[in-house]
Amino acid sequence: MKDIPGKFNSVRLYTMVDEATSYERDAPVKPNPAIKAAMDTNTKMLLGIWCSNTNDIAVELKALEAALVWGPKFADLVVGISVGHEDIYRYISEGPKSGKTLDDILEFVDKVRKAIKGTVLEKKPVGHSEPWVVFANINSSFVDKLDFIGANIMPFYDEETEKIGMAKQFDKALAGAREKSRGKPVWITETGWPITGESKNGNKASVANACDFWQEIGCRRLFNKVNVWWYNLHDSNHGSVNRYAISKNLTTEPVFDLACRKEVPKKDEPKKDEPSGVWTVSPSKSSHRVVVITLTIPDNETPSPTS
């Protein structure tokens, strides 16, 4: 894509399952076709296990097992496995029909680890992704069971963003996530700003603001420094009120100028004693099952699996 900075070389998958798969007992299971597409283009992957709206992840594990037939060629491109996505947030805000408890997620994490034991994925880190405020308010024993924390960072939804600016809100959230990480790597599993849609807490969805967010957060804080999956190349979730994109209809033509500017306005500069890294909170968007997200991943922060 024209003028894109850094090395964008990975995608995030929210499910292992082909969306055409039947969830009937004993039905054949096919893996997410995005996996093969990633392999064909030598693209790294953060795999996902969808955990909400189900009492079991057996179908997800069957799809994971089916993908293992690709062997080392597949495994070498896997960055890690996120077991669930904002499930605890949905449980708190919407109830058990929409989300999962901490114990549910830990049970699923254990099942994933057992499923990959003795396979080419055995040494891959296993984690979970949530808005950072969820990690900030749960028992530390939950974090201890993860290899990495996936922080979904969306200052657009935060009440304080209009008052203090997107960058300061982002830095504040990063500090909160790292404080509760217990030394585990914090990966940014979602971040971005909507280009269209409704305003939220005084924050306006617009191409101009999305461009500013790209410059302030992406260029100044993230690219080539932190494992980050940017939301989104082009939003395909038709249920969303706010739409995210950096590409015009999945073409190589960007929605806004992606080149990092040498000079950035100083009004949103973080204080010198604040962290220079990045992640923040986001109330959940609608539950997307199969979404591929662009990301940039430096060759660092590879955690050792928790035994």
Task: Characterise this structure.
This is Glucan 1,3-beta-glucosidase. It is found in: Cell envelope. Keywords: Hydrolase. It comes from Colletotrichum sojae. This protein has an eight-stranded mixed beta barrel, surrounded by four helices. It is of the alpha/beta class and 307 residues long. The longest helix is centred in the C-terminal third of the chain and has 16 residues, at 207-222. The protein is built from ten helices and eight strands. It has one domain (8-296): TIM Barrel, CATH 3.20.20.
Features:
alpha/beta; 307 residues; 8-stranded mixed barrel; 29% helix; 14% strand; TIM Barrel; 10 helices
Helices and strands in order:
Layout: E1 8-12, H1 33-40, E2 44-49, H2 58-67, H3 71-75, E3 78-85, H4 87-94, H5 102-116, E4 126-131, H6 132-136, H7 140-144, E5 148-153, H8 161-164, H9 166-179, E6 186-191, H10 207-222, E7 228-230, E8 293-296
Parallel strand pairs: 1-2, 2-3, 3-4, 4-5, 5-6, 6-7
Antiparallel strand pairs: 1-8, 7-8
Tell me the β content.
5-15%
CATH topology: TIM Barrel
Shape: globular
Counted up, domains total 1
- Helical amount: 25-40%
Subcellular location: Cell envelope
Biased composition (Basic and acidic residues): 264-275
Keywords: Hydrolase
GO molecular function, one term: glucan endo-1,3-beta-D-glucosidase activity
